[in-house]
Inverse folding.
């Protein structure tokens, strides 16, 4: 967080703070690029400035109240700050304790606000900070079964962001520095998607996306580089797991003699539940095998 703000939080040493500017998501809300009579275009930066004063004076209750007001008016930065506060708490007061559900709601609000403006105006440092901490939520706070609603809502928002930042038109306008940040954001999002597939026991899809993380390559963002290394480890562990669990049957369709070309196609074979000695390449072949070899014997 900017201006030494993180000194007031219970910080996580493994989490990088990448955004150092006090901005709303739309830069023109702060620097007067647009001369508008809309009150929020002047009110939001004033609220953010006022919140800084409250923080310096250790008036945490007013600080949070002002941030909530700014986020309601459309400040993605205010929403991100609230997400951070509820993720790690405030060091010097017990008035706010960590609450990962509330944190997630504010971080997701920040992503929704990103999607409301022209992506050419996106603060990429702020976006990375938001995605970085959302990754922390998925890895260390969320339980997929208990937090299913939050999990799915976050995935939807992350996929929307990933789709935009992967567009040629978007990439074309990025500076070298912003492109490094863009790649780091993609790594974070893909890692979350791969982890989701792994939890759902869809190991092949998880492995494919872990590989995609690796293919993006190292960036100048430490948190993303750590996820690339973690993706490599997770891919290797899943490969070992699958190699051990390959059924001890001939990997050829017993009905049409289809021969898989690789391990991925082998895992798509359907093992007959009746005899558990043969495999088929499709439900049609499997049903034909059961009808000819099992149903007639019953």
């Amino acid at each position: 967080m900017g201006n030494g703000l993180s000194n007031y939080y219970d910080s996580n040493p493994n989490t990088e703070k990448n955004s150092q500017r006090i901005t709303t998501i739309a830069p023109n809300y702060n620097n007067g690029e647009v001369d508008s009579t809309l009150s929020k275009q002047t009110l939001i930066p004033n609220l953010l400035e006022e919140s800084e004063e409250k923080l310096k004076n250790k008036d945490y209750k007013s600080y949070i109240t002002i941030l909530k007001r700014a986020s309601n008016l459309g400040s993605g930065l205010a929403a991100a700050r609230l997400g951070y506060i509820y993720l790690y708490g405030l060091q010097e007061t017990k008035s706010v304790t960590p609450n990962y559900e509330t944190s997630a709601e504010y971080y997701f609000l920040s992503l929704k606000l990103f999607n409301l403006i022209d992506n050419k105006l996106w603060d990429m440092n702020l976006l990375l900070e938001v995605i970085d901490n959302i990754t922390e939520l998925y890895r260390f706070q969320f339980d997929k079964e208990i937090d299913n609603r939050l999990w799915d809502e976050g995935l939807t928002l992350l996929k929307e962001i990933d789709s935009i930042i992967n567009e040629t038109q978007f990439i074309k306008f990025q500076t070298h520095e912003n492109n490094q940040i863009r790649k780091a954001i993609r790594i974070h999002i893909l890692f979350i998607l791969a982890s989701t597939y792994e939890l759902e026991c869809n190991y092949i899809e998880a492995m494919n996306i872990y590989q995609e993380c690796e293919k993006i390559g190292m960036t100048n963002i430490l948190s993303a580089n750590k996820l690339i290394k973690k993706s490599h480890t997770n891919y290797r562990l899943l490969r070992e797991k699958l190699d051990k669990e390959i059924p001890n049957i001939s990997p050829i369709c017993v009905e049409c003699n289809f021969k898989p070309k690789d391990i991925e196609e082998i895992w798509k074979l359907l093992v007959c539940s009746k005899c558990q000695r043969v495999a088929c390449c499709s439900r049609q072949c499997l049903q034909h095998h059961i009808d000819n070899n099992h149903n007639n014997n019953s």
About this structure: Residues 1-38 have pLDDT under 50 and may be disordered. Residues 247-298 form one domain.
